[in-house]
TrEMBL record:
Keyword hit for Acetylation: no
InterPro entries listed in its UniProt record: NAD(P)-bd_dom_sf (IPR036291), SDR_fam (IPR002347)
UniProt entry keywords in alphabetical sequence: Oxidoreductase
Matching PANTHER family: DEHYDROGENASE_REDUCTASE FAMILY PROTEIN, PUTATIVE-RELATED, PHOSPHATIDYLINOSITOL-GLYCAN BIOSYNTHESIS CLASS F PROTEIN-RELATED
Keyword Oxidoreductase in annotation: yes
Any one GO MF annotation of this record: oxidoreductase activity
SUPFAM superfamilies xrefs: NAD(P)-binding Rossmann-fold domains
Organism domain of life: Eukaryota
Pfam families attached to this UniProt entry: adh_short
Protein name as annotated: Uncharacterized protein
Length: 199
């Protein structure tokens, strides 16, 4: 079993489901500290209380993170910069919406904002933090995605500008938006990876 003693992890969207299970698995491998980042601090505290019963020696912190807000993402990363180390960052927060909804704070459709725009912004902002925190090499960034991305119809693919097309209700497809948002995230990561070291 891989020993995570003295290591620090961040897991977004981690008060339920896959994110919560990620936290549980990390703590079961003797992780010293985990940051549970959630939109609802109260729900995060409820999840943390249950985890503390099982893992009483671990440090479990709850930090607010609203992926529907660029400002919240930026504030979250500023807090991360003050951590003594970050070994693991798992970006799991995501959502799907049955109704078309534009977020007043960003002007973008909610599912695309949370699953793609804010997640990719968080990735970009975290990369230099992960690179600079550990003397023996950068921390590991993992972004949760889905096989459903293979089913994406991506009807907006020829629209220019692309992101604006997702803010147009005529393109809203409740079934396809989630896989398309995840597909775009995968494409983005391939592009970032292709930039290579030092770029």
């Amino acid at each position: 079993m891989y020993d995570l003693t003295e290591k620090v992890a961040i897991v977004t969207g981690s008060n339920t489901g896959l994110g919560l299970e990620c936290v549980r698995q990390l703590l079961s491998r003797k992780l010293t500290r985990v940051i549970i980042s959630v939109r609802s601090v109260n729900k995060g505290e409820d999840a943390a209380a249950k985890l503390r019963e099982i893992f009483p020696t671990a440090t479990i912190n709850i930090w607010p993170l609203d992926m529907a807000s660029y400002d919240s993402v930026k504030v979250f990363v500023m807090k991360d910069e003050n951590l003594p180390r970050i070994d693991i960052a798992i970006l799991n927060a995501g959502m799907t919406n049955s109704m078309f909804k534009i977020l007043p704070g960003t002007g973008h459709e909610e599912t695309m904002q949370v699953n793609y725009l804010s997640t990719m912004l968080l990735s970009i902002l975290l990369l230099p933090v992960l690179k600079g925190k550990l003397p023996d090499g950068p921390g590991r960034l993992t972004i949760a995605t889905t096989m459903l991305s293979l089913t994406a119809k991506f009807a907006q693919r020829n629209e220019v500008p692309l992101v604006a097309a997702f803010d147009d209700e005529k393109f809203f497809d409740q079934v396809d938006l989630y896989p398309t948002s995840k597909f775009l995230g995968q494409v983005f990561l391939v592009e970032v990876d292709g930039l290579g070291e030092g770029r």
